[in-house]
Amino acid sequence: MASVVRITGAVQGVGFRPHVFRQARTAGYRGWVANSPEGVLIHLELDPEEAKAAVAVLLEQLPRSARVETVSITKAGSERLEGFEIRPSLLGASASAEILCDLAMCAACREEILDPGNRRYGYAYTSCTDCGPRYSVMTSLPYDRGNTTLASWPMCLECEAEYTNPLDRRFHAEPIGCPSCGPTFWLYLPGKKGGFARSRESGLLAIKGAAELLNEGEVVAVKGIGGYHLACNAADSLAIERLREAKYRKEKPFAVMVPDLETAAAIGHLGEREVALLSSPSAPIVLLRKRLEFAGVAPGSPYIGVMLAYTGVHHLLFESNAPRVVVMTSGNRSSEPIAFEDGDALGRFEGMASAVLCGERPIARRLDDSLAYPFGRAPLLRRSRGLAPAFSADLPWSYPVLGCGADLKGTVALAVAGKVATSQYLGDLGFEETRVAHRRTVTELAGMYGIGLDSCLVCSDLHPDYYTHRYAEELGELTGRAPLFFQHHRAHIASALAESASLNLRVVGIAMDGTGYGDDGTIWGGEFFTGCLEDGLVAAGSLEQGLLLGGDAAARRPLQALGGYLASDECWEMLADRKFAFDRQVLGAVDSMRTERGFSTPASSCGRLFDAMAAICGFVGVASFEGQAATWLESLAELASGGGGYDFPVESGLIGYQLALERAIVDRMAGVDPETISLKFHRGLARAVVEMTVALAKVADAEAAVLSGGVFQNRLLLELVEEGLTGAGLPVITNTRHSCNDENIALGQVVLGAFELATGRHGVDL
Ligand SMILES: [Zn+2]
Ligand SMILES: [Zn+2]
Q: Quick one: which ligand is closest to 179's CA?
């Protein structure tokens, strides 16, 4: 008798089969292992009882990126096998999308490239089945050597021997290579005729040259896994100043890279969670509370973004005596997409960098560094390199549904056979390059699942001016199937419910956000919903509406947000007082906007309320990046010692903030410090959110509260609201796999679309 073992989880492309193979051989089991569409199948020439014990042995000390979710064992007929082998994949619909994440270099590979006696000494592109690039080199599916950007580098005999030996840790490591057969790095320096020209140095020598330039205070562009970084010495304030000028980036914090945890611990406070995130195979940037200040790196923030060296070229730079702390910021200007193609990079970095450390291995698609925030339950702010694409939720139906996402933080989600996969963060869809990446990602995700877009229900955002809205319409015209459009904040709530597998709960959904298009065509962003996904999420309350003076421009100018939100003319006039330090001219300009009310939209955006309060507390200028004023306001509150909360009356489904704004202005006039004002604002608002939620929960018979929307990236607000709700006996659900910002919208759209299909609403049918 024999048994079949079915294993699901992250078990493909992570060295799982070779691991099972080695364990089985050592233990003397007979049978085979193969990839299947659901995961991995193991055939064992043992009865199910014996197989159970054998599986425990096979699953001992799994490869570091493997994760087993379920194991089931069933009886099977004997195949009278003598040995144990790895069988070719049993390809059905498609392979798991989870296999494709890029992984930070493992310790074994790092040791090899630092060992002068090893044949891979100094070879930056070293990888194995435990580590290295995947999604960033994959050009099409199935994922094998011929479908990667390494296809044009034939393996040498030695590499091929490793690649074909099941006992080797490079068995089927698709990007395998070595100094004699693989791509290398070159250093490009300013040429005589302008532009960059390739210097003679390659490989380790090129990397040493770049390290030297960093030590001399130069800015060097370095090609990584998913794109180029601009690098400079973090301790060299002049270099940083030059980098800021070159990037047109005034104040937005830069991330830094360090060689090891020891150095990270010297820069910022490391707890268990920080250590785990920093050293995880996805190697994200982790926000650490600062211990050391590097002038100009993260000005005005109590945090610094730190990541560990994660690929060969980084390790070799540090090994070549590059500065211990290097600014590694995305290789772009301002908020443009990152450069990832060499020709484009060499052109774009002219005048920005003194040299370009260019690797020959092409990058198949742009992947930003992921960004982690080790607070609260949703530790992510940006989910990209190392974390995407990945499954983010399960649905009880098999409908194919596509979610096109929102514009500012573009992502794509696709549900097939009950699993929802979400793409990497694509960036601002205001740029044509990002739109190209968005369209390509849709095609690729569909390709991975082997499904045609014409069989998908296409879902997108309600906002008629969003690119993703128009894109869904175009797809609809192509496929002859009408797309569905969902309100932005319902999608936020649906995403959090799906991530926590709570699809059937009756809830109060609270979306505190920047801006989103509302059911009534006004701008929403401080919304309460009641109900459940099956019956629909009904808008049940919101922040009181104010005005966005000048529309979207108000997002950059906190004073403009205040001008549109503050009703009291008497208090408005107080802002002319020298204490507030507003520029007279700017104040005058906003003042006339207040009276004329041209180009303004009614809005209940909570993000703008934070901006308004930031203006009162002393944020007098223009925000140079998204969320700057709100983040600043939060860090002010952290410095406050006490004080109650402002009064935000909750009445007939509205949270009023006029009293709080007025009180804050009067307090400021009376000399109360901005730190205290900010804390009182956070506390008062949180209390009102809790009060409204508890009242709605009673009426709607809700079992839980759901928090989502970008404003909940504010840790203080999240904590205060969570504390209040839990205290009132309401369990709290928030995003756990995505951040609570717009990266989760695509997933939310897919969930809402699937429910429309399941309930037969709208008469859509697949
Ligand atoms: Zn490795
Ligand atoms: Zn080789």
A: 2
Q: Where does 185-359 sit in CATH, by number?
A: 3.90.870.40
Architecture (CATH level 2) of domain 2-92 = 2-Layer Sandwich (3.30)
Summarised one tens digit per residue, pLDDT across range 206-238 is 999 999 999 999 999 999 999 999 999 999 999
213: helix, coil or strand? helix
pTM for the model stands at 0.89
137 CA from centroid of ligand 2 (Å): 18
How much distance in Å is there from the Cα of 443 to the middle of ligand 2?
A: 33
Ligand nearest to the CA of 183: 2
- CATH top-level class for 389-488? alpha beta
Q: What architecture (CATH level 2) is domain 546-734?
A: 2-Layer Sandwich (3.30)
Residues 355-379 as b/e (b if ≥16 CB within 10 A, e otherwise) read bbbbbbbbbbbbbbbbbbbbebebb
CA distance 301 to 8: 42
Span from the CA of 382 to the centroid of ligand 1 (angstroms) = 25
Handedness of CA 55, 60, 64, 70 (dihedral sign): positive
Q: Ligand 1 centre and the CA of 314: distance in Å?
A: 14
Digit-coded pLDDT (tens) for 261-282: 999 999 999 999 999 999 999 9
692-747 pLDDT per residue, tens: 999 999 999 999 999 999 999 999 999 999 999 999 999 999 998 899 999 999 99
Ligand 2 centre to CA of 118 (Å) is 13
The candidate with the shortest Cα–Cα distance to 762, out of 489, 515, 458, is: 458
Q: In the chain, where are the structural domains located?
A: 2-92, 185-359, 389-488, 546-734
Please tell me the distance between residue 555's alpha carbon and the centre of ligand 2 in angstroms: 53
